Amino acid sequence: MLEAFFTSLLILVCVGVLAFTGLAVKKLYQGQR
């Protein structure tokens, strides 16, 4: 049960980092134009 909890937590963190990176890249890309 603990393993599943940590796995879901890891997935959530990865998704959050990906979303944050995507937003940062989007803002940088828009700022250049």
How does this model look, in words?
The chain has one helix at 2-32. By secondary structure, it is mostly helical. The radius of gyration is 14 Å and the shape is rod-shaped. The N and C termini lie far apart (49 Å). The relative contact order is 0.11.
List keywords for this structure.
mainly alpha, 1 helix, 33 residues, 94% helix
Q: What topology does this entry show?
A:
Layout: H1 2-32
Summarize the structure.
With 33 residues, the chain is mainly α. The chain has one helix spanning 2-32. The mean pLDDT is 94.
Continuous helix count: 1
Order of helices and strands: H
Instruction: Tell me how many strands there are.
Output: 0
- Low-pLDDT stretches are none
Report the structural category. mainly alpha
Helix content: over 70%
Q: Determine the oligomeric state from the structure.
A: single chain
Describe the global form.
rod-shaped
Largest sheet: none
Distance between the termini: 49 Å
**What Rg is obtained from the alpha carbons, in whole angstroms?**
14 Å
Question: How much is the average pLDDT?
Answer: 94
The portion of residues forming beta strands comes to under 5%
